[in-house]
Amino acid sequence: MPEAFSAGDTAWLLTSAALVLLMTPGLALFYGGMVRAKSVLNMMMMSFGAMAVVTVLWVLFGYSMAFGDDVGAGLLGDPTQFLGLDGLMSADSLVFGIPSLVFVGFQGCFAVLTVALISGAIADRAKFSAWMVFVAVWSVVVYFPVAHWVFAFDGATAGEDSLGGWIANDLLALDFAGGTAVHINAGAAGLACALVLGKRIGFGKEPLRPHNLTLVMLGAGLLWFGWFGFNAGSAVAANDFTALAWINTFVAPGAAVLGWLLVERLRDGHATSLGAASGVVAGLVGITPAAASVTPVGAIVLGAVVGAVCALAVGLKYRFGYDDSLDVVGVHLVGGLVGTLLIGLLASDSTPAGVAGLLYGGGVDQLWRQAVGAFAVLAFSFVLSWVIAKAVDVAMGFRITEEDEVTGVDVTTHAESAYELGTGPTGSGFHPTRSTTPTSEIPGQKVDA
Amino acid sequence: MKLVTAVIKPFKLDDVKTALESFGVNGLTVTEASGYGRQKGHTEVYRGAEYTVDLVPKVRIEVLVDDADAQDVIDVVVKSAQTGRIGDGKVWSVPVETAVRVRTGERGPEAL
């Protein structure tokens, strides 16, 4: 049934959408600090490139593919229904009591972030043009359909008779804010991309150390801030769901930092800042699907488990030899899986979601639903992402040349360097007005032709 | 003349400089350096991956002195740079053929 317009809910969703958009620049800082100084700009540009491409596609037909009426077994929305957001601009076009365009914007920010997350797996070595093509194709082929599976509810976005996606309506797996659609999806795609592009030169031999951990900490802080919009906004209202999601988003990352640092202290002897920043993100990833279905104490348990498991999982790339540079797999795929599956154990019927998991006497019913949803997205995303990345690689080359990689992708691809520290060789040819100024001209002096 | 070169721990630079000034040394050259001796480097940990950093930060001090002062200057540096812990550094001297003060063109001991 259509709900009446709510100014309060609308105000909160507009705020949430802006918070979620901030997560992508936050991610750019988080990722940018973790790469070497010679490739920080390319790392950040991959996030900003995702913002550029996905926002446009989302408005043109992406929203329609995700939230249009189902055109086949819950797998895909009708891309033509809201083409160019047609029909969504009138005052009576509401989704859950808020103007449809607000919902379009909020969900669009999810799409942007999900795509940007993938870039962490291919740091230092991706051709920017190829990345932009990958972003466009991946959004259309993978993200928009999966968003439909998970986020499109029957009767929500296109009138009472509208049909949504299979995970939301038939499988009934709980995924409050996108553990499957966002994190498992991006993590699986990251793994596929890392496999297609291959290892960075020097992976496993040279220290490919983060060049600026303060950027990493700042980025993690911005992600946490924006994540309140991501999770508490996903109630699409300002109510009891929102309150619980906010509190769980508040406590789970804290517990995850403790879990991550404890593993580090025991294993390596040091609790590190990169570990703390990573723990925050792991906890946020883990609580995302579960934000409205576990109690705050459940969120602490979930956070601690996710933090500890992800701290162990980031070492997998060395064991199996794939270069998931910034641990998209270790944090987002593994964190998303743990969070999604733990709902099957920790969901409490005392929460607004009203579902009991295994540990609350609900049996294994919810657990298998969670598992089917999680692994369906994982398999779909991994296979298609691998095919897309491979196709892009064959068509135009996904990876920069060895020489460019050693020199640094910033200078060779973007003709920029991140830091000017006033030492080293300086340039001899500066062309402020390239077309008119002879290279040898000294300011104020005439040069003979 | 001799060139006394010392590679020491960076935090000892002030102590060494003060001691050399008290001894009567008029000028010296300081360079940031990195390297290792028997102590090797240190280990850094990023998400559980350990990186051994071989080259540790050092400071190199160079002083031109009269032959007669060389041994004393070396002693002054050793005394003031010593912590007794591993990685304190090294001091050595080499003979210098000539030295010229650029401003005046003075040569030899006059140039010091």
From TrEMBL, chain A:
GO terms for molecular function: ammonium channel activity. It is a multi-pass membrane protein. The chain crosses the membrane at residues 12-31, 43-66, 94-118, 130-151, 171-198, 210-230, 242-262, 274-291, 297-316, 328-347, 367-389. It is found in: Cell membrane. Keywords: Ammonia transport, Cell membrane, Membrane, Transmembrane, Transmembrane helix, Transport. Residues 421-449 are annotated as: Disordered. Residues 433-442 have a biased composition (Polar residues). Homotrimer. Belongs to the ammonia transporter channel (TC 1.A.11.2) family. This is Ammonium transporter. It comes from Vallicoccus soli.
TrEMBL record, chain B:
The keyword Transmembrane does not apply. GO terms for biological process: regulation of nitrogen utilization. The keyword Phosphoprotein applies. GO terms for molecular function: ATP binding; enzyme regulator activity. Gene3D superfamilies: 3.30.70.120. Keywords: Nucleotide-binding, Phosphoprotein, Transcription, Transcription regulation. The modification O-UMP-tyrosine is found at residue 51. InterPro entries: N-reg_PII (IPR002187), N-reg_PII-like_a/b (IPR011322), N-reg_PII/ATP_PRibTrfase_C (IPR015867), N-reg_PII_urydylation_site (IPR002332). SUPFAM superfamilies: GlnB-like. GO terms for cellular component: cytosol. Homotrimer. This is Nitrogen regulatory protein P-II. It comes from Vallicoccus soli. The lineage of its organism: Bacteria, Bacillati, Actinomycetota, Actinomycetes, Motilibacterales.
